[in-house]
Amino acid sequence: MPITVLVVDDQELMRAGLRMVLGAHPDIEVVGEADNGANAIARARELRPDVVLMDVRMPVTDGVTATARIIESGCGSRVLVMTTFDLDEHALGALRAGASGFLLKDTPPEDLISAIRSVAAGDAVVSPKVTKRLLDRLIAEDPAAGRDPGVLEVLTAREREVLEHIAAGRSNAEIAGELFLSEATVKTHVGRVLTKLGLRDRVQAVVLAYETGLVRPGSA
């Protein structure tokens, strides 16, 4: 079965370009389009696509609100945000709302296709290091923003340590080297961190690590 995609962007030319790029791949099918967040919510509930390609700055309803409502609806769609700027606070808002990651709109077509396939398979595609840069800037601007660090009490000391390394953008192999563990052991720890904290992926783990103060801007 092909990966079904809903394309959401307020610019008709952008939607047409994305449809053309995605249509060249037999394992991907564009099942619908939407020109604003409100229509995206309705179309996602109707079509239940595997992946929603979501613009963030749109009229009527923005992409952050639309992302949150799509995730909350339980339709099963995963959201991949597309933005013009790599330090876009709206993109961070979408990640907090449950998006599986974001890409820049000038991403090469082959990288976009790879990202869609990864998201459809349940992975996150945004680099944690990019998320870290967003969080560094935004938390520095608003130190009051955050969450109760008590949510981390469910983690063991080793799991907290692993979370710190995830927040630094390190891969399982890099964490294994830092902690003198096998990659399989690190993978187990990462899985437990995500499960205990109720997180979908590593990107949300990075966000939570900053919001709880486990990692401070510029420290990772």
Q: What's the CATH architecture name of the largest domain? A: 3-Layer(aba) Sandwich
Distance between the termini: 41 Å
**Can you tell me the number of structural domains?**
2
Major sheet size, sense and barrel closure: 5 strands, parallel
Flag low-confidence runs: none
Tell me which oligomeric state these chains represent. Answer: single chain
CATH class of the largest domain: Alpha Beta
* CATH topology call of the largest domain: Rossmann fold
Return the structural class. alpha/beta
Secondary-structure element series: EHEHEHEHEHHHHHH
Mean pLDDT: 88
Overall 3D geometry? globular
The CATH H-level homologous superfamily of the largest domain: Response regulator
The number of helical segments is: 10
Taken as a percent bin, the fraction of beta residues is 5-15%
Pfam families: GerE, Response_reg
Keywords: DNA-binding, Phosphoprotein, Transcription, Transcription regulation
GO molecular function: DNA binding
GO biological process, one term: phosphorelay signal transduction system
